[in-house]
Records
---
Amino acid sequence: MFRYYKIIFISLLLSTNISATILVVNSADQKENELQVLDNTKALYVSATDLSRVLTSRLPYVNKERMKMVLYFSDTRIKISSNSSFVLVDEEVFHMPVYAKASGGDIFLPAVSIFRILKQTVLPGLTYDPIKQRLDIDAVEFNITELEIEQKINGTILTLYTREQFVAGHISSFEHPNGWFYLTVQNGIVDTTQINKTDARGVVAKVTAYQFAESAQIAIRLRSGIIGHEVFQSSDPNAIIITLRTPFDKSADRIRLLRKRWRLDTVVLDAGHGGKDGGTVGKSGTREKDIVLDISKRLGLLLEKKTNINVVYTREEDIFIPLWKRTKIANESNGKIFVSIHVNSNPNRAARGFESYLLKQGKSDDAIALASRENAVIKLEEHSGDKYKELTGENLIMATMAQSMFMKESEELAAMIQVELGNRLDSPNRGVKQAGFVVLIGASMPNVLIETGFLSNPTEEKLLKQASYRQKIAEGIFSAIVKFRSHREKLLVEG
């Protein structure tokens, strides 16, 4: 981490084109230095050699024959040349309105311009008052420190590490038609040196960080267009997460790899609740755990008999399975989709119908209440340790972010399930919704949770108790899975 200390430049009497000095006071240790300047009727020029001596820990590189210098600020190199108005900070070019001047084997730079460039790149705490000819450099700790880039099959995830949480409204982002993606953080102080060293990969061709007076900006040069992006904050660790979604690579090798990897050959069926967790219970005593296990087995039998799809059950009998273990089973079996089957409940006994849920924070009160009720099973788990530690708020956003690459497919599967159930059931189609179901967290595949009806509704409880009605539900989900597989395979064939 860099720390910069207040330095006060006190101007002495200066004459046009006469060499003079400025007193430099370091407030940390009260040591005094002198900084040479040239006073011109148009601008004040400051010595590059003295800037390096006073503000950095390394001697500059000097080429006296060509009058070029390199100043070293930590790992950042600042290249300057006499009779040039350009300054090169690593690979970034900055322009000054007037030329640098050579004098006595030294290069003098226009003070206002060079201080602005230093503030923007390596000294974010710098403030210069040209009227008083005073330079203040306050102690600064970067709150944006490092960037990691991870390439995924259909996009790129960027993790921008921070030392604090920013107000949500202070983070903005957009894709510009010029091929750059911009993220701006109000009150951000960015370690430009560290960020600019980030290795580009995926859709990211180049990363450049800028420090402004009241904000920090990360500019990302894109190799190709993106089809969408999301920005979230995480609190453990503190980070801003950016996903840049891209179309699948259409190369022949890539298509062959995708076909092999994403061929829908295994479906994981999760019958909710079980054992000591009975789930919701109808007025006549019908238990959710029994209804959903029966539907799950009926669905599995259809898949095994009518397709070559392998079926994996998270439970096949009345036993208790922790939520975290259900997705663990799905991942370890190399499942290609995860379907969690449940039955709903509502204090309003008139509520009825079927609905499908995706893993996102709930937007409606009903969705939030439903997720809270389904997640309450955690209290029955023994020795769960910190598996669910702080799995709310920003951390839930992070968990959903990790699965964002499957969100589009999850939405498609959920929509197909709603259509197929609607073709078979007389109950209302309540649509596709979103909520923070813990059981879906960690499933590295398209996933959906289905609420097949309301046991709290006397009419639907009677229907759910009928084997023929449960068979219709199983057939509807089966038909949706088959159509989803067909659609997916068609996309892979087309590339």
Note: The longest strand covers residues 144-152.
---
Amino acid sequence: MDLTSEKAEIIKRFEQVNDATLIQAIKSLLDFGLGKMPENNEALESSFDKALKQSEEGETRPHREVMAEIRARYKK
């Protein structure tokens, strides 16, 4: 499939989405892919602050442990 066909398929599928959270996630992904970072995004800043606090308090897990758990959960 060529790039134009891929885009058309994505648009077709996107038009069927009725989940506001999924739409926002897709918009954020597109912004990121285009090198745009949202300005004054309180939710994003809050998320970063929470992650930093968790890290400072030792509430983290190694990446390899998390990935192993995800792979096991979604193993086909």
Note: The chain has a mean pLDDT of 88.
---
Amino acid sequence: MKIRKRAYGNSNMVGANIERFRKERHLKQKDFIAQIQAEGIDINPSSYSKL
């Protein structure tokens, strides 16, 4: 996983909230994606990284 080089700023609230949610629950990105897919949302690691 690449480490974020720049802060989110104020235009990407979705990405910041998803990252905060995931880290609060101590989930890795792949585990989070698997849970989202189990709920029926079609997302892959590439799409997740674009958030």
Note: The longest helix spans residues 13-24.
